[in-house]
Amino acid sequence: MTAPTAVIADDEPLLRAGLREALVLAWPELEIVAEAANGVEAVHAVRDHQPAFAFLDIEMPLMNGLEAARGMCEQTHVVFVTAYDRYAVAAFERGAVDYVLKPVAAERLADTVKRLRSRAGTPVPSLDALIGELARRLPREAAKLEWIQASTGSTLRLIHIDDVLYLRSDAKYTRIATRDGDALVRKALRDFAAELDPRCFWQVHRGTIVNVRAIESVTTDILGRREIAVRGRPERLEVSRAFGHRFRGE
Fold it and tell me: pTM for this one?
């Protein structure tokens, strides 16, 4: 029988080493095939090694554990590692993922391993709804989105949030507009709205969020309708009346 495999992701080397040692004791046959220091590395490690499980710290630089889990596209069973019990309990109660609290306790890890053994080889559940819920529970300063992942076939495109000009709802997807072209992401605009820094990204329409730094000009016609010109793009973005107050000069 093939040994189960896993990836560990944590930006703290000592905590990463501690989890590895604890797993060796709790699950000797588990093979740790890769370690990652941030969410971006974790996503690539899962794509490269196709492990059965991924242990993801929730709070990591570049891309947090929730964003990384979303980018794994149901490729692996996720175990969230967190120091925040309120996040862990919410995740655990939903039943889609398991969790490990920091510092890792042998008894709790043994319970996790027991559940993971029973999930080995089973289909990986969709985590979209759960990840959106947990993202809203994160402290605002920890929830800021830094990277957006867009997949095209087997290629993963990582878009830094500073490169996003605007986001527009497109059926079940969100269209991410950049100077280098557009990308479709299977994630609702409202979920992006909960994770974006409201100082830099303004909702200007029910279906549109714009990067304030990308705005070139705002024009108003004789009927009071406003449109935004975005640097480097020919199209104009409509500003609905509900959000028009953002651009009043008075």
Answer: 0.58
CATH number for 120? 3.40.50.2300
Examine the fold and report which residue of 96, 113, 137 is the final residue of a domain before the chain moves on: 137
Please state the separation of Cα 132 from the chain's center in Å: 8
d(C-alpha 55, C-alpha 34), whole Å: 11
Q: In this structure, are residues 7 and 34 in contact, taking their beta carbons and an 8 Å threshold?
A: yes
SS3 content of the chain, % helix, strand, coil (to 5): 35, 30, 35
Q: Domain of residue 163: give its range.
A: 147-247
Q: What is the mean pLDDT of the chain?
A: 83
> If pLDDT is split at 50, 70 and 90, which confidence band does 149 have?
confident
Question: How many Å apart are CA 56 and CA 63, to the nearest integer?
Answer: 11
Strand segments (E) across the chain: 5-9, 31-36, 53-57, 77-82, 98-101, 147-152, 155-160, 164-170, 173-178, 181-185, 201-205, 208-211, 215-220, 226-230, 236-239
What is the pLDDT confidence band of residue 84, given thresholds at 50, 70 and 90? low
- Crossing angle of the two packed helices 85-94 and 128-137, in degrees rounded to 10: 160
**Does the pLDDT value for residue 28 go beyond 70?**
yes
Contact indicator for 5, 23 with CB cutoff of 8 Å: no
Clarify whether residues 81 and 204 are in a common domain.
no
Residue 201 has pLDDT above 70, yes or no: yes
Whole-number pLDDT of residue 139? 55
The pair of three-digit structure tokens given for residue 178, joined into one six-digit string: 């950049």
Q: Decide if 110 contacts 26 (C-beta within 8 A).
A: yes
Please indicate, yes or no, whether residues 155 and 233 belong to a single structural domain of this protein: yes
Look at residues 137, 158, 191 and tell me which one is the last residue of a structural domain: 137
